[in-house]
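Model it.
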Amino acid sequence: MADERRPRVAVVDDDDGVRESLRFLFETAGYDVVDFESAEAALIDGAIAEACCLVLDQHMPRLTGLELVGMLRARGVSLPIAIMTGSPSPELMREAMRAGVAQVLEKPLADDALLTFVERAANRASG
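Modeled.
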C-alpha cells in the first residue's frame, strides 16, 4: 500500500534489471517509485513533475538522459536530477552541469551515493 506522504523517486532506464534494482533499493529505503523504460515514456506521463527527484540513465535509445533533461527543463520541471553513466567523460560532466544536473553517478552504482542524493532531494522537497 502506497503512502501518499512518502517522497516519490522517478527512475528512467531502458534496462529492466536496473529499473527493478533501483525500485527495490528506493522502496526498501521508504520511498515511492515511479519508473519508465524510456525517455519518451517519461515525457508522456506527468508523474515526474510530482517526484522529489529523478534518477536516469544517460545512454538510452532515441533520447539520451541529457536530452530528456533539456526537454524537462524546457517544460519548467526543476527537480534535482542524477544521471547514471558507465562513461563519465569530462564533456558529459560539463554538459550535465550546464543543464542543471545535480549529480553524475558512475556505473556500477554505489547504493550509498544514490540514497544520499535521494535523501537530500526529499529533504529539500519537504521544506
